[in-house]
């Protein structure tokens, strides 16, 4: 019996094990979504393809399988390109399916016509157009290619005549998880020797380790060897933040002092200061373990010690080669790390107690943390944090401890602002929808998704609060509102109004490029669609709203008016703190 192209596409996805599709429908893809729903796949309909594509990338990261996004052609593809860039930059697996105009109308100026294959080929791992006969094989190969090796995007272009045509069902090939590669045993021996003779060894744990679900082998490695470790922002939780070998509070000392460093699932990019001076010791031996051969030696120019292989396998190989060796933690390096930790944590504790209104970032995060921890202790792993906004993300990172992997999402490698609400929806789907794809994280019947959003970051995807409300997602969103990008613009409404007046009259001293509206009522976004909104200014109001918001069963937006003009200056230098190439004499 023949079926429509839309039915064949939905069936191929179902046979691949896809249980959630993120997207935004229109002609000609609406039939695909409807057929998918008929097969029991959940279709999460967004307000903009950008947020839908971001959600699919995060879903890929959290579940360890490609996230799927369905969009229309032309403008739909252009909006979804944001997610394609995000997938490539973060190495998250993403499958994008997009409609396109009828094959016989190509080049005639058809409805939403776009040569998506030419556009996307340089930005994806595979970009193919499907015919009616090749539906299962094109979808399967795009799915597999986005997933195997380093994660990235697979793209399938689906012309309207393919979606609307009639064809026979051909069974889809099952795609098992990728085979795992082991390291060269000779290399492992050398590395074990280096570790044993190191004075200041360090293990850096990146989000690649979280994505690889390598927590049990990495926990074993650190517990048995006592080597200090440093998580990257999304590598937090692979080992518990409370672990005694965690050097996160002494980050600079850890990097600068280390002499042998094993990097598990992290690139030596801007997040790790390129593995170079001045942040790192120039003589440090850096051993990268990565699934991607191209990555090795990219920035420190030395792949001699690098290892190609799967983190799970390589970590076990290393443990065997170390034969029960343990690092002597009475070393000068560990003493320096402890001293630095005490100093840095004391500074943080001081900033958490600053008692003024409008509140500071430090106080704001402290009130939220204290309240949430009473409701859900970190060891239970009941909260997923999603964090974005320059200061909000940077300053909250060290405040909220995570004890289990994949419980913290942020703007990531691309420093993409605007991912937060899409990521929150993805986290809700990954953890709270019954699905065979759901992450094998710690046991918890329902996870609360908590977004920490700067007011600027929140603005990028604000209508997705309605998406959350429509699907009954009880996401708790804090909007840390200082009336601007970065540090906000002024410290009181009179001054802000004066600036706005000047701006209207074209006078100097008007609104800056970083200015946003003063005390905008962001909480109303929740109220307009059946959620709950709170506007808070004091620690007491914030604590009450946090508790009520945590217990709510609908999306909640807590709009927190904080002090403007606060936090770090606009600085770009640290992000690119690499040594400059020397000029020839
Ligand atoms: P972070 O942002 O935490 O520093 P990155 O995204 O820069 O992390 O790096 C993650 C790295 O992990 C990528 O280079 C990716 O190729 C690698 N990776 C992903 N999965 C595995 C795996 N199973 N084994 C080894 N490396 C992996």
From TrEMBL:
GO terms for molecular function: 2-hydroxyacyl-CoA lyase activity; magnesium ion binding; thiamine pyrophosphate binding. It comes from the Eukaryota. It is an enzyme of class 4 (lyase). It holds the Pfam family TPP_enzyme_C. Its cofactor is Mg(2+); thiamine diphosphate. Residues 189-318 form the Thiamine pyrophosphate enzyme central domain. Residues 389-560 form the Thiamine pyrophosphate enzyme TPP-binding domain. It is found in: Peroxisome matrix. The keyword DNA-binding does not apply. One of its GO terms (cellular component) is peroxisomal matrix. Keywords: Lyase, Magnesium, Metal-binding, Peroxisome, Thiamine pyrophosphate. Residues 5-118 form the Thiamine pyrophosphate enzyme N-terminal TPP-binding domain. It catalyses: an (R)-2-hydroxy-long-chain-fatty acyl-CoA = a long-chain fatty aldehyde + formyl-CoA; a 2-hydroxy-3-methyl fatty acyl-CoA = a 2-methyl-branched fatty aldehyde + formyl-CoA. Catalyzes a carbon-carbon cleavage reaction; cleaves a 2-hydroxy-3-methylacyl-CoA into formyl-CoA and a 2-methyl-branched fatty aldehyde. Belongs to the TPP enzyme family. This is 2-hydroxyacyl-CoA lyase. It comes from Coleophoma crateriformis. The lineage of its organism: Eukaryota, Fungi, Dikarya, Ascomycota, Pezizomycotina.
């Amino acid at each position: 019996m023949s079926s429509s192209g839309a039915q064949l596409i939905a069936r191929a996805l179902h046979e691949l094990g896809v249980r959630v599709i993120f997207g935004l429908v229109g002609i000609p893809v609406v039939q695909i979504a409807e057929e998918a729903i008929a097969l029991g796949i959940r279709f999460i309909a967004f307000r903009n393809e950008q947020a839908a594509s971001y959600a699919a990338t995060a879903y890929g990261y959290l579940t360890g399988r490609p996230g799927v996004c369905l969009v229309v052609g032309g403008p739909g593809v252009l909006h979804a390109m944001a997610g394609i860039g995000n997938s490539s930059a973060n190495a998250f697996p993403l499958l994008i399916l997009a409609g396109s105009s009828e094959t016989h109308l190509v080049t005639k100026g058809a409805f939403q016509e776009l040569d998506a294959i030419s556009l996307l080929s340089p930005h994806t791992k595979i970009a193919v157009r499907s015919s009616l006969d090749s539906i299962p094989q094109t979808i399967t190969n795009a799915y597999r290619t986005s997933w195997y090796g380093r994660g990235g995007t697979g793209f399938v272009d689906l012309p309207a005549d393919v979606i609307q045509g009639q064809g026979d069902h051909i069974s889809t090939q099952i795609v098992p998880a990728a085979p795992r590669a082991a390291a060269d045993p000779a290399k492992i021996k050398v590395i074990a020797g280096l570790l044993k003779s190191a004075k200041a060894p360090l293990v850096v744990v990146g989000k690649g380790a979280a994505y690889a679900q390598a927590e049990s082998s990495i926990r074993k490695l650190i517990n048995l060897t006592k080597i200090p470790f440093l998580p990257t922002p999304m590598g937090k939780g692979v080992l518990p933040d409370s672990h005694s070998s965690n050097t996160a509070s002494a980050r600079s000392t850890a990097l600068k002092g280390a002499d042998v460093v094993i990097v598990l699932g992290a690139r030596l990019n801007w997040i790790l200061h390129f593995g170079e001076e001045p942040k790192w010791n120039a003589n440090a031996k850096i051993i990268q373990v990565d699934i991607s051969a191209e990555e090795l030696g990219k920035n420190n120019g030395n792949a001699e010690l690098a290892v190609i292989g799967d983190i799970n396998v390589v970590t076990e190989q290393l443990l065997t080669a170390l034969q029960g060796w343990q690092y002597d933690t009475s070393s000068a390096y560990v003493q320096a790390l402890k001293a630095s930790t005490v100093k840095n944590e004391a500074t943080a504790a001081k900033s958490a107690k600053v008692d003024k209104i409008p509140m500071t970032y430090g106080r704001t995060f402290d009130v939220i943390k204290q309240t949430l921890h009473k409701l859900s202790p970190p060891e239970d792993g009941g909260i997923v944090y999603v964090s974005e906004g320059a200061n909000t993300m940077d300053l909250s990172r060290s405040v909220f401890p995570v004890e289990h992997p994949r419980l913290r999402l942020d703007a990531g490698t691309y420093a993409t602002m605007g991912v937060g609400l899409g990521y929150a929806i993805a986290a809700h789907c990954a953890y709270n929808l019954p699905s065979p794809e759901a992450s094998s994280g710690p046991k918890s019947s329902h996870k609360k998704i908590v977004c920490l959003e700067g007011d600027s970051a929140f603005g990028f995807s604000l209508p997705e609060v309605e998406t959350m409300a429509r699907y009954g997602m009880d996401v708790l969103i804090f909007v840390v509102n200082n009336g601007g990008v970065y540090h906000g613009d002024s410290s009181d409404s009179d001054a802000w109004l004066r600036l706005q007046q000047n701006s209207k009259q074209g006078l100097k001293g008007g609104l800056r490029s970083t200015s946003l509206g003063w005390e905008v009522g962001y909480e109303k976004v929740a109220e307009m669609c059946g959620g709950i909104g709170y506007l808070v200014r004091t620690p007491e109001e914030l604590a009450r709203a946090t508790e009520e918001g945590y217990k709510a069963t609908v999306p909640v937006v807590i709009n927190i008016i904080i002090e403007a003009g606060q936090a770090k200056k606009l600085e770009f230098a640290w992000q690119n703190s690499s040594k400059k190439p020397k000029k020839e004499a």
